[in-house]
Amino acid sequence: MCSNKKVIGVCYGPRCSDFGGRDMAEALREMGHEVENLDCQSLCPHAPAIRVNGRFVHRATIERVKEKL
Ligand code: FES
Known about the structure:
This is Thioredoxin-like [2Fe-2S] ferredoxin. The chain is α+β, with helices and mostly antiparallel strands and 69 residues long. It has helices at residues 14-18, 21-30, 62-68, and strands at residues 7-11, 34-38, 50-52, 55-57.
């Protein structure tokens, strides 16, 4: 597991939430990461959108987010 905490931003907009964004935010928090709730980022066709180190992961999964940390 990554030792240094980095801020992750998760879109809490309706479409990303439908595609599991909020659930992933909770899972990431439980893993010890700092997670910021974001408004809709106009990336809805690519939901769920999760920002890691300033870049958005489209159609994010926990595994793909962890790869970017
Ligand atoms: S709802 Fe997440 S980008 Fe629009």
